[in-house]
Amino acid sequence: MSTTIETRHGSAPAPPENRHESRKRRDRIHGWSFMAPFLVFFGLFLIWPLIYGMVMSFTGKSLTGANSSFLGLANYAEALGDTDMWHSLGNTLYFTVISTIPLVLVALAMAALVNMGLPAQWLWRLSFFAPFLLASTVVSLFFVWMFNPQLGLINFVLGKVGIAPVDWLNNPDVAMWSIVIATLWWTVGFNFLLYLAAMQNIPEAHYEAAQLDGAGGWRQFFSITLPQLNQTTIMIVILQVLASLKIFDQVYQMTGGGPGGSTRTIVQYIFESGFTGYRLGYSAAISYIFFGLIVFVSIAQFAVTRKRSA
Amino acid sequence: MATTLTAPGRQSRRSDVAPEGKRSKRRKRLSPALIIATVIVAVLALTWLVPFAWATITALKSETEAAAAPISLVPKSGFTLDAFVKVLQQGNIPAWTWNSLFTSAVVTAVTLVISALAAYALSRIDFKGRKVLMTVIVASLIVPPPVLIIPLFYQMVSFHMIDTYWGIILPQVIAPAMVFVLKKFFDQIPRELEDAALVDGAGRIRIFVQVVLPLSRPILAAVAIFVFIGAWNNFLWPFIVTNDSAMLTLPVGLQTIKSAYGIQYAQNMASALLAALPLILVFLFFQRQIIKGISTTGLAGT
User: How many contacts, defined by CB atoms under 8 Å, are there between A and B?
Assistant: First the structure.
């Protein structure tokens, strides 16, 4: 035993295969030691709850502790027949569509305008991006106040130009759009910065060539800038769709899911069936239906991206 | 995704030079298009400032003036700091600020250490199982945090961590996206620097601490800033794991204020502004790093 270890450590005279062997062994120990702290947390707080949540979804586990018996697929069957679940899922998809479009287009327009060579670039970046740094609760407090039917600034301004007051957060037809407005204000700056960085990386030579050919500003934007931004746009849309599907904070804080459940999203429904309804098992089942949706969307987007770049 | 993650150093430097005006010949011509664009952007930027401004004006009014219809931009009785004073004296805001500061700082420190160690191993050390680990970590990016709240809550109950700092902190320290960003950065550091040290007989830890980390300061700073902002603003998890009013973080505490104060608009806005202040300061100090970081660690936003 001791002799072999001796030769391994006496590195100078050791034959090459032996040194190779010892290095390999050392690398294995080092590799796993460097990974260990991360893996402990990763296992405890990601992998384990992911598996445990799946197990819970097959049981009747509740917050009161009673009845944690195995139910098989009963929770899933119940969820699929639950109109509130479908309604929340529909609201989530609706929000995703009506928020992603402005969040991408407004960001693109902002970046294109700022990138025309405006003075004081830092000022525009500061104004558009600053809201992104606020906690959701701050944003919600700001906008609940702005949207106040009698005392809010928005209805006040609308009144000045002769538009009747809107009940922004209490009208089921309008409430989701009000959430979109607040979300646009809050997070568009992030997409704006991604677009701006990408635009500033487009080689100037492209534009010079186009100018020689007599292409104007619009022409340059559509035939040079936009195509060059293809990859960026795909990435922004993917990130935005995935972020929008997870929406919870600002809706819960601004409308509580109301009026009449018209803005309740799937994450809020998970939260409510678990913590208000005390049905952890049922709530876990809905979590996994939601997870399935996210996986499906991710794979679909991955497939589309693959095809595009191939 | 690949576009933002590759070549962090180069990309950000270029976008940093651009605003200084060395880049574009187009900008020098003061064309009508440029003037129109400036006006549009200025109007948009002013619109973006309105919620801040309106919150500030409201917070500086007396409660009576704040709730008076029709609304006025300048209150008749003048501006007052009453709302700020009341909120700071009566509310839990100082305690919540401390909770947020402490938990976010610990989350940032732990995340940075464990992610950098893991990223180094994935980037540099050739060990059995590395590819599998890499795949699992990348795959885990797909898991949406809301899916985990139910089992994590149950786990925290059995760990007796409800209403504790550890309960708030521990589940937030896993950041697969950050491991990925750091690995990409380490991949670009020339191997020769380390090989020289390895031949000299320096251990892995020493190389990591003395060679790799100093070269990675910008990316470590970007990751730290992002993790901190994310932890500071996190709502869902602290909201679930805390009940005790003294243990709430600032964003969660603000949610309870709204219902507790009822219609005290000036105090609501004062609280919101006080909660916004620390991050606005962080932004003013680290504007460059944050904006650079967005283009290098675009994933952080999700």
Answer: 301
Q: Identify the CA nearest to A138 among candidates B257, B49, B232, B276.
A: B276
Residue A78 and residue A44 in one domain = no
Q: Does B159 touch chain A (CB under 8 A)?
A: no
Q: How far off is chain A from B263, nearest CA to CA, in Å?
A: 10
Q: Per residue in B148-178, pLDDT tens?
A: 999 999 899 989 999 999 999 999 999 998 9
- The whole-number average pLDDT for the span B268-273 is 92
Domain contains A53:
no
For residue A247, the 8-state DSSP code is -
Compute CA B89 distance to the chain's CA centroid, rounded to the nearest angstrom.
28
Residue A28 structural domain: 2-48
DSSP 8-state secondary structure symbol assigned to residue B301: G
Q: How far is CA B247 from CA A73, A136, A176, A297, B168, in A?
A: 38, 19, 32, 37, 9
The CATH number covering residue A163 comes to 1.10.3720.10
Q: Tell me if B77 is assigned to some domain.
A: no
Our CA-based measurement puts residue A33 at a distance from the nearest CA of chain B, in whole angstroms, of: 9
pLDDT of residue A131: 92
| Greater pLDDT, B12 or A267 | A267
Q: How would residue B259 be classed by pLDDT, with cut points 50, 70 and 90?
A: low
CA angle B76, B80, B85 (to 5 degrees): 150
Q: How confident is the model at residue B260 (pLDDT cuts 50, 70, 90)?
A: low
Structure tokens at B3: 């576009």
Q: What CA–CA distances, in Å, run from A84 to A248, A265, A270, B55?
A: 16, 10, 11, 36
Predicted confidence at residue B204, as pLDDT, reads 82
- The shortest CB-CB distance from A28 to any of B127, B275, B302 is to B127
Chain B residues closer than 8 Å to A283 by CB = 150
Which stretches within chain A are classed as H helix? 2-9, 16-42, 48-56, 74-80, 83-114, 121-129, 136-146, 153-160, 175-199, 204-212, 217-220, 226-228, 230-245, 249-254, 266-271, 280-309
Q: For residue B260, give the CATH number of its domain.
A: 1.10.3720.10
How many angstroms separate the Cα of B222 from the Cα of each of A206, B6, B188, B293, B294? 31, 15, 17, 5, 8
What is this model's ipTM? 0.84
Query: Tokens standing for A92?
Result: 């989530």
How many structural domains are present in chain A?
2
Q: What is the pLDDT of residue B109?
A: 96
- Measured between CA atoms, the residue of chain B closest to residue A281 is B150
Whether A251 and A295 map to the same domain: the answer is yes
The string of pLDDT tens digits covering residues A23-34 is: 788 888 888 999
Number of compact structural domains in chain B:
1
Residue entry with tokens 């020289």: B196
Asked if residue A108 and residue A16 are part of one domain, the reply reads: no
- Decide if B278 touches A, using CB distance below 8 A: no
Alpha-carbon torsion, ordered A8, A12, A17, A18, to 10 deg: -10
Mutation target among A11, A126, A141 for the B interface, most CBs of B within 10 A: A141
Region B5-24: mean pLDDT is 39
**Is A182 within the bounds of a domain?**
yes
CA A257 to chain B, closest CA, distance in angstroms equals 15
Establish if B129 belongs to a structural domain. yes
Residues of chain A with pLDDT under 50: 1-14
Residue B22 reports pLDDT greater than 60 = no
Asked if residue A69 belongs to a domain, the reply is no
